[in-house]
Amino acid sequence: MADLTGLARDLVLQMTRAGKMVATAESCTGGMIAAAITDIPGSSAVLDRGFVTYSNEAKEDMIGVSVATLQAHGAVSRETAIEMAEGALARSRADLAVSVTGVAGPDGGTVEKPVGLVHMALARRNGPTQHTELRFGDLGRAHIREATVEKALQALIAAG
């Protein structure tokens, strides 16, 4: 798989040079994006905070995802990912916030939302929020989570 350490190092270096901070809002990765960033020395200048919002209640309480969104679209949806990223940005000092919510498996998949489906959003202060739908397939839980971390780090680097 990817060199997550290298990606995280590139992100920390880029954001440090730009004087920018990031926040994460994670469901299916359970804090792995923030952990990858904090593995790098100097990351305290870059990572403002990470929200692990695994349950719907955590999404609501910690980052303001609306009950109506969760009821209408579910936790694994474009709408929820966008609200997660925007909520993390609003509740932090970050310039960029990335969110991920998905079905890592091995259970929980449906025809509409199969194992390997991940919704990712990137919110920018004073800029548009972007959404990306990722479909990794049923690669296994560890690989889906690692691939999600890779895509999130890449998105932060591209946005920075």
From TrEMBL:
This is CinA family protein. SUPFAM superfamilies: CinA-like. Residues 7-157 form the CinA C-terminal domain. It holds the Pfam family CinA. InterPro entries: CinA-like_C, CinA_C. Gene3D superfamilies: CinA-like (3.90.950.20). It comes from the Bacteria. Signal peptide: none annotated.
